[in-house]
Structures are given as C-alpha cells and as structure tokens.
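Q: Could you write out the predicted structure for this multi-component system? I'm mainly interested in how the pieces pack against one another.
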Amino acid sequence: MIYLGDQTDGLNAYSKEAVCWLGVKLKGRRGFNCGDSTCYPCNHSNIRSNIDQEFRDLFDDALIKEIIEAKPRRLLELNGELLTAFTIQHGKTTDDFRRNAKNLFLNSGYKVWFLTDENSGEKWNYRLARLLDKHTCTYCNREYTFVLRNPSGIGKGMVPQIDHWFAKTDYPLLAISFYNLIPSCGTCNTIKSSTNLNLIDHLHPYVDSNISSTYEFSYLPITNIDNRIILKNSSLFNSKGLDTVNALNLPLIYKGHSGKELQDLIDLRYKYSDNYLNILLEDTFGDLHISKEERYRLIFGIELDEENHHKRIFSKFKGDIISELLSIK
Ligand SMILES: [Zn+2]
Ligand SMILES: [Zn+2]
C-alpha cells in the first residue's frame, strides 16, 4: 500500500470546481455563486432535480465545502450527522437519505460530472490522477497506473480506476469527497468492490503515513522448488496493517507471483553455489560510485525508498523479499 500524503495542491484544484458544482446542483445558480466569472459550474451548471427540499436545506456553504474537503474521519461523522438531521428533524427515512444522496452525489456527481463531463476541461478521473502523480496502484503496487491520452482526445486513454474507500454503495454521500477517492488498478478495484473498510480496523492511504511499513512480504517454503508469497505483520502488537492487506485481498492478488518473481529472487540466493543476490548488489558496478538506491533500481527494477515505492511496481514486495533473503546467512 502507498501513502498518498496530504495532496494539498490536488485538493485545492479539485475543491475549487467540486464545491461550486455541488453548490449549484443543490441551490441553483441563484442560490450559489463563488463570484468568479470564469468558474464553469457557477456560470453553466444547473440545479439537480428530484432532490427533496429538506435534503437541500441540510447544506450551507461551509458544509458543501466540508463534504468535498474533509479528511476520512470527519467524512464519516458528517455522514452520520446529516443522516441524523434528515431523519430525526425532518421525519424522513434512511432510505430517503440514501435516495437523495445517490441521486446527487453518485449518479450526477461521480458517474457524470467526475467520470464523463469534459465541459470544464478534461474528465476529472484524468485530472485527479495527474494531480496526485502516483505511478502504481495505491493498494497493490503491482500495476502501473499511468495517465496517458491520445493527443487527439479521441477514444479512451490510460487512467487509474478510482476506488471509493468508504464504498459508494453504502456511503453515496461521500462519492465525490476528495479523500475518499483512491486511485487503484482495475484488479484491486474489482476485488475490493464494496468490501467495507473502517478506520478502527484498517489503515487509510490518506491517513496513515506508516501504511507501507505496517506489514511485510515474506514467503513460505512448501518444497525446494515451491515457495508461496505470504504477508505478515511488522509489529506483534498491532494487526491493522495485516488486517488491511487481507481486506484488500493482497494475498490472493500476489499469489500468481510466487512461481515467478518470488522464485527468481530465491534462485538468485540459493540456486547457485554463491549468493548471487549479494554478488549482484556488491560487484556488478565495480568501482563505479553508484548509490544503493540506484543499484536496486538498475538490478531489480524497484525503488528502495518507501516514498518512491509508487514509482516502480513490486518495490515493496521485492524490497521485503530481498531484504529477508540477504539476512539469511
Ligand atoms: Zn464557482
Ligand atoms: Zn492494485
């Protein structure tokens, strides 16, 4: 898993348009305007129909901004607070709340404004991915998530999928909240699907800066030529890291790499009379002054530093396995 950081610049760029879009959809152009004559939603978008007035009235300007910008813990609180206000103060049902939230935030917001609308520039999935500038899947680090489009703009390009950390089926209100949008590969997004993660048992890529070091890749020898990738906790006292990778199904996602990338590394360590892992790392470049980071990149195709893991696939997995193999005398 990759820590995504605060992404303040990305948040500001996203929020500038998302807040106005949401404001106009809730209140109409007469009821919401940021005052910027070049703002696309404030000058071109229209109020969303089929929303209960009581639902619109839940939101003032500050709350509209907060739903877009709040960190995960606060998002969850907001979801609870608004649901309570809507059902208790207005005598509405939970289903009414979900219907309104789904109509506005999911169907109009995420599916149309975010994924397909190019009126105010490029689609937001492309723009967000460019702003975040992470090159492999946040969850698995085993697929690249480049952002590339045909210069003509015709046809589909390459862009990460967006996973909703709080599943959009259960939390439609949070469908366009910045810190709920996690760039991921298609495999992880599909496998995670509507799996419910929570902040008590699981780590969040926008919350937990130590997310990558809370668990380790290791392996289990089944026979001399059959080894299995396993994941284990880094700490005896905290199982959150392992619980998170298990919830994301990383053991399954990595299973197919046991006979390939894992076996290659084990072969370098054991197949030949000498420990070729060591020889490769220590002797390949002779007297050339090549940094440890560069040696790992050139020999194994991975980034050694945690903050750069996102730039090369398998950095975390291979880094952990190589470290374990080197430590065995
Ligand atoms: Zn505006
Ligand atoms: Zn992935």
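A: Regarding packing and overall arrangement: The CA atoms of residues 174 and 180 lie 7 Å apart.
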